[in-house]
């Protein structure tokens, strides 16, 4: 899952980003409408947390545009503009939920989980191939009936590969899915994480293989019989 936090107060933005990190996905943080538009142009998001009043305008226009998108994310407005009229404007403008500041962190997470459960955004709870099952929204994978707790990036890599089982995913596309745009990535970071994931799956008897397609990317498929 990839989330976008649109918040111009750095401390609040960082705090909300850390909270959303508990949902085991990638979180991008921007502080203006212009930066939000750029992020939305570059990435597909499952969730947007939007502060309303930003340095370059009212983010309600961003919410309205998002709500009309064919692949719209879940949208929660998180703002100090919380009069009854503000809430009505936000919901009528396309937000799925509206929460005033200050807010309780567990309430925000509960509202996030609620909007993500709505049918428009439902996804399979488990992705599987062979004897490997990844439980989405966690770092838990079952390999040959044994549970393994993966690192967050490893789980994101496995999820991306399972979503495209038997198809090549380019290195660039995989990086885009598992890293935020502010993350610093060394040249061999992805390869090292894929290598660790391979070793863990093999150590527990996984019957799948992650093949490197030199100069292109990776493909996940059933391992040939031994």
Automatic annotation (TrEMBL):
Residues 124-222 bind DNA. GO terms for cellular component: cytosol; protein-DNA complex. GO terms for molecular function: phosphorelay response regulator activity; transcription cis-regulatory region binding. Residues 2-116 form the Response regulatory domain. Pfam families: Response_reg (PF00072), Trans_reg_C (PF00486). Residues 124-222 form the OmpR/PhoB-type domain. Keywords: DNA-binding, Phosphoprotein, Transcription, Transcription regulation, Two-component regulatory system. The modification 4-aspartylphosphate is found at residue 51. GO terms for biological process: regulation of DNA-templated transcription. This is Cell cycle response regulator CtrA.
């Amino acid at each position: 899952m990839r989330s976008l936090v649109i918040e111009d107060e750095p401390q609040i933005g960082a705090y909300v980003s850390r909270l959303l990190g508990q949902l085991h996905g990638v979180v991008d943080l921007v502080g203006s409408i212009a930066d939000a538009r750029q992020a939305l142009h570059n990435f597909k998001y499952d969730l947007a947390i939007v502060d309303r009043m930003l340095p370059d305008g009212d983010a309600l226009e961003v919410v309205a545009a998002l709500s009309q998108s064919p692949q719209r994310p879940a949208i929660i407005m998180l703002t100090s503009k919380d009069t009854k009229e503000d809430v009505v404007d936000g919901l009528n403008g396309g937000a799925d939920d509206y929460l005033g500041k200050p807010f309780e962190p567990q309430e925000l997470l509960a509202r996030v989980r609620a909007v993500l459960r709505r049918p428009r955004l439902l996804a399979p709870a488990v992705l599987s191939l062979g004897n490997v099952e990844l439980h989405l929204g966690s770092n838990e994978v079952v390999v040959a009936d044994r549970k393994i707790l993966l690192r967050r990036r490893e789980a994101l890599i496995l999820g991306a590969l399972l979503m495209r089982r038997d198809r090549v995913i380019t290195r660039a596309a995989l990086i885009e899915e598992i890293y935020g745009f502010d993350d610093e990535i060394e040249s061999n970071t992805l390869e090292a994480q894929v290598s660790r994931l391979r070793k863990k799956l093999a150590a527990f008897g996984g019957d799948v293989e992650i093949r490197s397609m030199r100069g292109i990317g990776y493909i996940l498929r059933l391992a040939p019989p031994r």
